[in-house]
Amino acid sequence: MPLLLLLTLLLGQCQRPEEALPPQPLLPKDKMVSLLVQIHLTEARVEATNLPADSSRALYRQLHKDLLWRQDVTDSLFQRSYRYYAVHEKDLDEIYGVVIDSLTRRKELLNAPKPAPGTAPPADLPKWDK
């Protein structure tokens, strides 16, 4: 009986996969949001080019690589961080909630009536648009 109790306590202390420690370094959620917004915009731009599939894949890969380079993020850091957040579905849901809101807001602003020349842009533009 004491052995069973000891095993139960030891097993209870083991870390489950869903409780894995975050990789170090890990991209913060706000950085992931910013990258994912830009990645989805890049995908849309490439799709709009109507290039053949192999050309559009090559273009997308280059633009993706350039985006990560401009943000000073390695591909491996991005992949590791994305995998971590994907395992933690609540975090990924939260991140994609903000991504979807950001993309929806951008679409609304693009479809909004254009202000008269010389007027100031709306104050609630996302920071990357200012």
UniProtKB/TrEMBL annotation:
Designated name of the protein: DUF4296 domain-containing protein
InterPro entries assigned to the protein according to its UniProt record, in alphabetical order: DUF4296
Annotated stretches, region: Disordered: 111-130
Domain DUF4296, first and last residues per copy: 23-107
Organism: Hymenobacter algoricola
Amino acid composition bias (Pro residues), ranges on this chain: 114-124
Lineage, uppermost ranks: Bacteria, Pseudomonadati, Bacteroidota, Cytophagia, Cytophagales
